[in-house]
Design goal:
This protein has 4 helices and 3 strands. With 110 residues, it is α/β, with parallel strands linked by helices.
Length: 110
């Protein structure tokens, strides 16, 4: 009788623990899915300064084909000369200058 009571108590405790664990896991999984969906809906906008049509076309292609998958949106800001993008970048009007990438800067600093 004593063994039976111990076995039933242990079995009941195990069952209740499994129920609570599965409910908790499902709740966590649902909140994670909700966060993932909302993060995908919120795209990070990056403004990039360009000075030519070719650069603009490249960035539009990247925006339409690659950036969306990464949760990014690229806004192209076109300038008429090579100085304006640098000034706009300094003044934080744009986030990046198409020509100031790492290889360009490494070469310019030599």
């Amino acid at each position: 009788m004593n063994r039976r009571r111990f076995f039933l108590t242990a079995l009941g405790s195990l069952t209740v623990s499994l129920i609570f664990a599965s409910c908790s896991q499902q709740s966590t999984q649902n909140s994670t899915n909700t966060q993932t969906i909302s993060q995908k809906e919120q795209k990070e906008v990056i403004k990039v300064g360009v000075t030519g049509i070719l650069s603009e076309d490249i960035l539009k292609f990247v925006n339409n084909n690659i950036a969306a998958k990464e949760g990014l949106e690229i806004q192209v800001v076109t300038f008429n000369d090579w100085i304006q993008p640098n000034t706009a970048l300094r003044d934080k009007v744009i986030d990046a200058n198409f020509f100031q990438h790492r290889p360009f800067m490494n070469n310019a600093s030599k």
